């Protein structure tokens, strides 16, 4: 690979796909053509730098020992957001 051509960073690849809407790492991985585990690891690194927010929601179909599994969803951190009333 030539030195003048470099692959974009994960931040550069993920940030344009993240909006104010919550999205799963699997959906982002499908859009990027990457492995879900890799995308999840990059999102967690971005979360530590306050670039994205995470929430946990019940998985709609999967359960483990009678309890619903949780899945993570991410969105871009909303700067200057007005606090709820």
Word description of this protein:
The protein has 85 residues and is α+β, with helices and mostly antiparallel strands. It has a single domain (10-76), classed as Arc Repressor Mutant, subunit A. It has 3 helices and 2 strands. It has helices at 10-14, 25-32, 36-48; strands at residues 52-64, 67-76. Strands 1-2 form a two-stranded antiparallel sheet. A hairpin with a 2-residue loop joins strand 1 (52-64) and strand 2 (67-76). The longest helix is centred in the middle third of the chain and has 13 residues, at 36-48.
| Global geometry | globular
Q: H/E element string?
A: HHHEE
How would you write the strand order of the largest sheet?
1-2
What would CATH call the homologous superfamily? Winged helix-like DNA-binding domain superfamily/Winged helix DNA-binding domain
CA(first)-CA(last) distance: 54 Å
Arithmetic mean pLDDT: 84
Architecture, according to CATH?
Answer: Orthogonal Bundle
Please tell me how large the radius of gyration is: 15 Å
- Low-pLDDT sequence parts: none
Helix content: 25-40%
**In DSSP terms, counting alpha (H) and pi (I) runs of 4 or more, how many helices?**
3
Oligomer category? single chain
Q: What structural category characterises the helix and strand content?
A: alpha+beta
* Strand proportion: 25-35%
The number of E-state strands comes to 2
Topology:
Layout: H1 10-14, H2 25-32, H3 36-48, E1 52-64, E2 67-76
Helix pairs in contact: 2-3
């Amino acid at each position: 690979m030539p030195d003048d051509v470099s692959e974009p960073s994960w931040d550069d690849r993920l940030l344009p796909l993240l909006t104010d809407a919550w999205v799963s790492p699997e959906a982002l991985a499908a859009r990027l053509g990457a492995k879900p585990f890799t995308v999840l690891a990059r999102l967690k690194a971005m979360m530590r730098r306050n670039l994205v927010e995470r929430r946990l929601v019940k998985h709609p179909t999967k359960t483990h020992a009678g309890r619903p599994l949780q899945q993570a969803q991410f969105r871009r951190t909303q700067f200057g957001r007005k606090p709820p009333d």
